[in-house]
Amino acid sequence: MPTPAARDLNQCTLPMDVLTNPSAADTFPINGTDHLEFYVGNAKQSAMYYMAALGFDMVAYCGPETKVYDRVSYVLQQNKVRIVLTASLQPNTEIAKHVALHGDGVKVLALWVDDAETAYRTAIERGAESAFEPKTIRDEHGEVTLASIKTYGDTIHTFVQRNKYNGAFMPGYEARSNPYPSKSVGLQYVDHCVGNVELGAMNKWVKFYQDVMGFKLLITFDDKDISTEYTALMSKVVSNGNGYIKFPINEPAKGKKRSQIDEYLDFYHGPGVQHIAVATNDIIATVGQMRDNGVDFLYVPETYYDDVPERVGEIEENLEDIKRLNILVDRDEDGYLLQIFTKPIQDRPTVFFEIIQRNGAKSFGKGNFKALFEAIEREQELRGTL
Ligand code: FE2
């Protein structure tokens, strides 16, 4: 079987007009990712990990001290990446049930819009299911309008309109500065967020993003693109007009053994967010710092680097640094990219982070899929889930 690296990149459908022509038919404009909200078992301790290991600053908080009695939320930020960590203070809340079923995981992929009410109404008219109706919340710093629709599994997209707000996060939260010293690792913005869905459901969700949001299908990977000797998966990437929102959707494919998507679906008990890719301008510095901070990354064997110069050509970074930090490299027709994947960031083998540096490349590292999936298989083997 040819390795993905040996395949012609042009085999995948890449309608480049979507990336170069922002007039793609968005049904409403999206400025970017507003925040990602995780429901977790212990928000206080998770916040410590995000600060100490991932270099985030704490910016806001809500809980009993701010007259919220059923939950606590810590808001963490690093450049344009904003993460909200929420835990329940009661046993029977929606948050507690979410954590009991899924473990720690992403509940909200929040999208920053100029008009949340119109975004919501348009989405509903086009077939989206409501998570909650538009509401405007206010405090002394102004007002924020929120509305929300459902996507795969228990995940939701909340539209956030914050043009009349200048507080720390949103009404209901108080500003909070770092209680622990943290040092930025250089994470800049959310590059893409990947969802895992059940076998046969990928096309349904691609159609949802096309019909409801007006997203374009950017790339299709079939099970021949994404397979190893043992496991396979399929993936389609949808994007909004300005390219700031990119959602790859994965589904498992038949292989000799159980794929990482099957493992995810078993442990998460249904579809959900698989990984969040965060961009950096200096992956050598970012990953070096994260490793020093104790972050665990997937491991590729040294032989991975044997054909890198031939496959990728000239790159600005020192190959020895890349090798030392175990970073992956790939090239497409627009440039190259450097990427690396953390191991799962919670007890269950579900959500993880990708760190990505794009030097022109607009794709997703297809040349690394095989090495990456073999690395995941080694982890699955240890867990007895392959
Ligand atoms: Fe990714």
Structure description:
With 386 residues, the protein is α+β, with helices and mostly antiparallel strands. Helix content is 24%, strand content 34%. The strands form two sheets. A nine-stranded mixed sheet has the order 6-7-8-5-1-4-3-2-9. Strands 11-12-13-10-14-17-16-15 form an eight-stranded mixed sheet. A hairpin with a 2-residue loop joins strand 3 (71-78) and strand 4 (81-88). The radius of gyration is 20 Å and the shape is globular. Residues 1-23 have low confidence and may be disordered. Residues 192, 194, 275, 277, 354, 364 line the site of fe (ii) ion.
Secondary-structure topology with pairs:
Elements: H1 17-20, E1 32-39, H2 43-52, E2 57-62, E3 71-78, E4 81-88, H3 94-102, E5 105-112, H4 116-125, E6 130-139, E7 142-150, E8 156-165, E9 174-175, E10 187-196, H5 202-213, E11 216-221, E12 232-239, E13 246-253, H6 260-268, E14 272-280, H7 283-292, H8 308-312, H9 319-325, E15 328-332, E16 335-341, E17 352-359, H10 369-383
Parallel strand pairs: 1-4, 5-8, 10-13, 14-17
Antiparallel strand pairs: 1-5, 2-3, 2-9, 3-4, 6-7, 7-8, 10-14, 11-12, 12-13, 15-16, 16-17
The structure holds fe (ii) ion.
Short key terms for the protein model shown above:
386 residues, alpha+beta, 2,3-Dihydroxybiphenyl 1,2-Dioxygenase, domain 1, 34% strand, globular, binds fe (ii) ion
CATH fold title of the largest domain: 2,3-Dihydroxybiphenyl 1,2-Dioxygenase, domain 1
Q: From N to C, what is the helix and strand string?
A: HEHEEEHEHEEEEEHEEEHEHHHEEEH
Summing up helix and strand content along with how strands pair, one would put the structural category as alpha+beta
CATH class of the largest domain equals Alpha Beta
User: What proportion strand?
Assistant: 25-35%
Radius of gyration: 20 Å
Distance between the termini: 21 Å
Number of strands: 17
Please give the order of strands in the largest beta sheet: 6-7-8-5-1-4-3-2-9
Biggest sheet record: 9 strands, mixed
Mean pLDDT: 92
Number of domains: 2
